[in-house]
Structure formats: structure tokens, C-alpha cells
Amino acid sequence: MTRPLHWALGVLALSACFGSGTVERVAAGLRERQAPAVAATSGTSEAPVVTLQQDWSGHYSVHPLVEGRRLRMMVDTGATLCAFTQEDAERAGLRVSERDFRRPMSTANGVVYAAPVRIGEMQVGGITIRGVEAVVLPRGRLGTSLLGMSFLRRLRSFEAAGGRLTLRG
């Protein structure tokens, strides 16, 4: 009971300080942050098109099927390869051992050793790519799995404009 009361008092305080327009924008941002990005699929069976909506932080999240398992990934055009957290890799049935972490990778946080893997099948909406080169990073070294260029460069095209990322299979 006290939690809703605290929220109500917080909203009232914000509206007194900043005006209702600011509060509405903050509330809209919170709703967007909590709602998953929606992928819309269109196009013909020969050339499927998937459109992703930018989230509140400016990123594009996607929920592909990886080896038949649904994961959450962030699209990263700066990542050469798709990169999986060790936890996501395990969910997708990608088994790696400690000795597999042998490939040095340069990241914003320095060098990390990753385990190279090949994904049999990744599906985003109606787009399916087989044989995707990827890496698994050790526990705690990656916050969110990344959909990198090893997937994106195999598409016919992709384009970001107007808060939308369009993938053409």
C-alpha cells in the first residue's frame, strides 16, 4: 500500500517542480522502457522485411530464435560478430567449456577471451540465416547478447531511419 502512495507523491512533486508536460514525457519514457520492442514482418516469402522500433535508450532490441530458443539481443552494427552471454548460449543449447575461451576480442572494457561458435539457425521475424559465426563471452563479461554484423551482413540490406531499423532478408 505504501508503494503506490510513494509513486503518487513522487508524481505530484515532479509536476509541481517541472509542470505536467515533463511528467507526461517521463511517464511515456518509462512505459516505452518496460514494453518490448515490436518486430513487424512484411514482404514476400522470398524477401521478408522486419521492422524494429527504437527503444527509449536509442537502441534496437530484437527477440530472435537461436537454435529454436527465443533470446533477447541488442542490434550492434559495431560488433563484427554476434556475441552471446554465456547464460544465453546455454539457453540456446550452445555448449562451451572453459578451454573454449581462447579467441582474444578487443572490447570497450579491454581484451576478453571468447569461445567461437557457429549458430546452425537464427531467425528474426520471417528472416532465417544459417551458419552464423558468433562468440560466447564468459559469465559477467557481457550484459546483453549482441546481434552483430555476422548476421546483418548476410541480409539483402538494413537501414536505420526515423526511429526504425528495417531488415530485408
From TrEMBL:
GO terms for biological process: proteolysis. GO terms for molecular function: peptidase activity. CDD domains: retropepsin_like_bacteria. It comes from the Bacteria. PROSITE patterns: PROKAR_LIPOPROTEIN. The keyword Protease applies. Keywords: Hydrolase, Protease. This is Putative protease. It comes from Methylobacterium nodulans (strain LMG 21967 / CNCM I-2342 / ORS 2060).
